[in-house]
Amino acid sequence: ELKVEQNPLFLSMQEGKNYTIYCNYSTTSDRLYWYRQDPGKSLESLFVLLSNGAVKQEGRLMASLDTKARLSTLHITAAVHDLSATYFCAVDGGGTSYGKLTFGQGTILTVHP
Amino acid sequence: KAGVTQTPRYLIKTRGQQVTLSCSPISGHRSVSWYQQTPGQGLQFLFEYFSETQRNKGNFPGRFSGRQFSNSRSEMNVSTLELGDSALYLCASRRTSLSSYNEQFFGPGTRLTVL
Questions:
Q1: How many Å lie between the alpha carbon of A103 and the closest alpha carbon of chain B?
Q2: How far apart are CA A92 and CA A59, in angstroms?
Q3: How many CB pairs below 8 Å do chains A and B form together?
Q4: How many other CB atoms sit within 10 Å of the CB of residue B20?
Q5: Taking CB atoms and an 8 Å cutoff, what residues of chain A touch B3?
Q6: CA dihedral A39, A44, A57, A13 (to 10 degrees)
Q7: How many Å lie between the alpha carbon of A41 and the closest alpha carbon of chain B?
Q8: Which of A16, A71, A91, B67 has the most Cβ atoms closer than 10 angstroms to its Cβ?
Q9: Is A16 exposed, middle or buried (0-12, 13-18, 19+ CB in 10 A)?
């Protein structure tokens, strides 16, 4: 059974600082997603990572995927208050479970002035 | 392009009742998946429908069921509601073509409260 673990689960950052959220998963997959969720809202797609070594960047966020290590990272550069939200990674089951996403627990990010 | 829509947005039911939630996918998307989000269990996959057929199912009891119509719209039904069914139910759609990322786009969700 595919398991996805994120850490940290809670992250309190000062504005301007850098930090990384880690996402480990237990079985082989070639498709990983990062989502953002604001309180009371739905999931907003941030990144789609499809292959080993994939790196995507959007603004202050950069995501990478290492399929051999079964690890993805979401790096935050020079955090700003607007980045405060919950971030989820999700791994596609692949094979007969293609399209079935298994989510991490989520990382609650709070950016302080 | 319109996003995924879900109705109703909020529902209050009592234990033992049943409920039907509706989801309209993005135009051209043929796959619809349902997820349950609770504070305790997080985000969990319920099932996926493609071309009116259930393609994948999560670990939920038979009280949870769904269907998909020929226009790709989907409904999920929960019978004999329990307090633990209180959750945000999210619907997601994807295109499923070979050339796409098959990224899942989520709707705004239906907040179900069971009293």
A1: 6
A2: 25
A3: 56
A4: 15
A5: none
A6: 10
A7: 6
A8: A91
A9: exposed
Lookup: tokens for A64? 């990478």
Mutate to test the interface with B, among A43, A48, A108 (most CBs of B within 10 A): A43
Alpha-carbon gap, residue B21 to B90, rounded angstroms = 10
pLDDT mean across residues, chain B: 93
* Structural contact between residues B43 and A103, judged by C-beta atoms closer than 8 angstroms: yes
Residues in chain A within 8 Å Cβ distance of B29: none
| A62-90 pLDDT, tens digit each | 999 999 999 999 999 999 999 999 999 99
Biggest alpha carbon–alpha carbon distance for chain A: 46
pLDDT number for residue A29 = 82
Q: Which residues of B touch A32 (CB under 8 A)?
A: none
pLDDT at A53 over 70: yes
Collapsed DSSP state (helix, strand, coil) of residue B15: coil
> Which residues of A are less than 8 Å from B53 in CB distance?
none
Which of B115, B92, B94 is CA-nearest to residue B36?
B92
Output the six-digit token pair for A111. 């950016």
Is the predicted pLDDT of residue B80 greater than 90, yes or no? yes
Contact B45 A102 (CB under 8 A): yes
Residue B7 Rama label (left phi>0; alpha psi -120 to 50; beta): beta
